[in-house]
Amino acid sequence: MARRAAGSLHRLKNERCPLSLPARGRPAYLAPPRPAGGLLCHRLRLVDQLRAPLISNTARTTEALFLPPHSTAPRQLERREWETMVNSTRFVALFLLIGVAAPAVLAVTDGLLPNGDFAQRPDKSQMNGVVITGRHAVPCWEISGFVEYIEPGHREGDMILALPEGASAVRLGNDATIQQSMNVTRKTYYSISFITARSCAQAEKLNVSVDPEFGVLPVQTVYTSTGWDTYSWAFKARHSTVSLRIHNTGVEEDPACGPLIIAVAIKTLSPPHRTKGNLLRNGDFELGPYIFPGTPWGVLVPPILEDVHSPLPGWMIMSDTKVVKYVDAPHHAVPHGERAVELVAGRECALLQEVATVPGWSYRLSFSVGDAANGCKGSLAVEAYAARERLRVPYESLGTGGSKPAVLEFTAIANMTRVVFQSSDHLMTSNATLCGPVLDDVLLVGVRKPAARRLRL
Fold this sequence. Notes:
By secondary structure, this protein is mainly beta. The chain folds into three domains: 2-40 and 43-101, no CATH class; 105-269, Jelly Rolls, CATH 2.60.120; 277-457, Sandwich (Jelly Rolls), CATH 2.60.120. Helices cover 13% and strands 35% of the residues. The chain is built from five helices and 27 strands. The strands form six sheets. Strands 1, 5, 8, 10, 11 and 13 form a six-stranded mixed β-sheet that branches. Helix 1 (2-14) packs parallel to helix 3 (59-66) and helix 2 (44-54) runs antiparallel to helix 5. The longest helix has 23 residues, at 79-101. It is globular, with a radius of gyration of 28 Å.
């Protein structure tokens, strides 16, 4: 048992969660490789193996753990020196036991979560075919329910999509959950981004939560021609240690039916502030969720009516099931800066922000409308609303990029005014990717105060 424990120690020491794969063979959606930073994902089964031998009081166990087999050291050392060594090694063993038994909580930085790409596979002893049977079988993750591990090249008759080259995935079947504990900063806002795809169920939903907050994200609409979409969700950390859970709420006749997930990442969100000369927060959309490098489809921001918890700080998305798309300059044409929003759901979804106004004052709302250079051709249009005013901005797109400015002037009728944007129509590219007009550079300024009334004598 002592020798088995020594082997377990060796395996545990090398059982690390790399934050990325080696550059060779990496999927395109992952960032350049970074050092793991010494983060350990402790497997609970090793604790049981280590517990007994590490706290043993016998010299045999100490010798087996810390000396080579058949060592003659006890005979060559004086008795007092040997007792000192035994006591020292017992202390080291107890220290190691405490470290091993401690909860596996990992400090997170912006980017992929530890084993967030599921590249570290479960041990075959904890799998039945592709079904994962061990609760802690996937390094860095804890699972429950019907969860499958899908490796590169795996194909199944009921699967609509094949995995991207070099990717590994988990498939969340009936009542399945994956979760990971992590160290965060209290009272700080974070966004979660994950790449997912439907498999065989039709009305799939994922419940993403960090206690006490949660959000149910409908994933039944496929927005890209590849079938893979990146979704985002945001939360405020109430504690320094939190547990992220992604749960499939569906129960299908086939227990394996459920969404596939190939990557999970996190990003710290800075609180949005009004900049000088703009009454709106994050009007340039530079603050937003994490975008996986190499993903040309952007990030979907789901319906949410609480702007303080939005992955797109300062903005709310109003819809029952539809989303807006957050896009970046490396993969799309952006009118200004590095980020913008593409309105991909027509009138079924609206992007809005509430702003403090003074009734009777006049305001000017300016913004840019264009296309993302993603092949979205035809007559695009953005509709803007504020107070009692409405403006429709048409844009003829060639699908190669470009933008035009627009201005809406209105008079406030209340202390709070909603600024609302939506696309006029549903559009699709030639490869069946849902698309729409791009919105950027949203600026709201006060123009003039109402004229003062003179008192007649």
